[in-house]
Design brief:
By secondary structure, this protein is of the alpha/beta class. The chain contains seven helices and nine strands. The chain has two domains: 114 residues, ATPase, nucleotide binding domain (Nucleotidyltransferase, domain 5); 73 residues, Nucleotidyltransferase, domain 5 (2-Layer Sandwich), CATH 3.30.420.200. A hairpin with a 2-residue loop joins strand 2 and strand 3.
């Protein structure tokens, strides 16, 4: 079964096509553009190119897996709205994957616990601590790097991965390694069991962790009386 894989939880806009069949999953195509301000205009062309690279069309898809965050409001919404719309139009299930879990899956090695930190802007990071096998030890949160370092250390973290870790490595006080952004291989690995089992579609609920920057304008004051 072919799965469309989408990630707009960070500055990297990613689309790909994976294949889950016969107990094996593999990535057939992947396209990424790193530009935190072009999620809306970049995603559709990346999807089209990924399908073309995989020798498939939208009609061949059996599921959609999308990164639900945590991530900035605007970019994350682009990916999730696109995934939900495609799932509805094609009549196929949608599945969500946590961005921090995807980064953890890419680097888990049975070693010591580690921190995953992504850039939350406002001089903060989205973060969680994972066991060496990639199991989450703390719930996703958003904090200033100076506060995250001691919290991660108290949970046993011995290294850090992710764009937030690279950006604030000196403040976190942990060795930094691994990828900056989630990739489609990790997204596919985390969704594969649900895809293979034909699990019911999941609501793609975004994990924002804080309120969006945009707010409704206050009511205008009357100029009369």
């Amino acid at each position: 079964m072919l799965v469309l894989l989408l990630d707009t939880s960070s500055a990297a806009v990613t689309a790909g096509v994976g294949d889950v069949s016969g107990g094996v999953c593999r990535v057939r195509a992947e396209q990424t553009v790193v530009d935190g301000k072009r999620h809306g205009e970049a995603l559709a062309p990346l999807i089209a190119r990924s399908l073309a690279d995989a020798g498939a069309t939208a009609a061949d898809l059996g599921a959609v897996a999308a990164d639900v965050g945590p991530g900035p409001f605007t970019g994350l919404r682009v990916g999730l709205v696109t995934a939900a719309a495609l799932g509805d139009a094609l009549g196929i299930p949608t599945y969500g994957v946590c961005s921090l879990d995807a980064l953890a899956a890419a680097v888990a090695d049975d070693g010591a616990p580690f921190l995953v930190a992504t850039d939350a802007r406002r001089r903060e990071v989205y973060w969680a601590v994972y066991s060496g096998t990639g199991d989450r030890l703390t719930e996703p949160a958003v904090n200033r790097p100076a506060d995250v370092g001691p919290l991660a250390a108290s949970s046993g973290a011995r290294r850090a991965v992710g764009a937030g870790a690279l950006l604030y490595g000196d403040v976190l006080g942990l060795p930094v390694s691994g990828p900056e952004y989630p990739d489609v291989t990790a997204l596919l690995s985390l969704a594969a069991a649900r895809v293979a089992a034909g699990a019911p579609a999941e609501p793609l609920t975004p994990l924002y962790l804080r309120r969006p920057d945009a707010v409704e304008p206050a009511a205008r004051k009357s100029v009369l009386g």
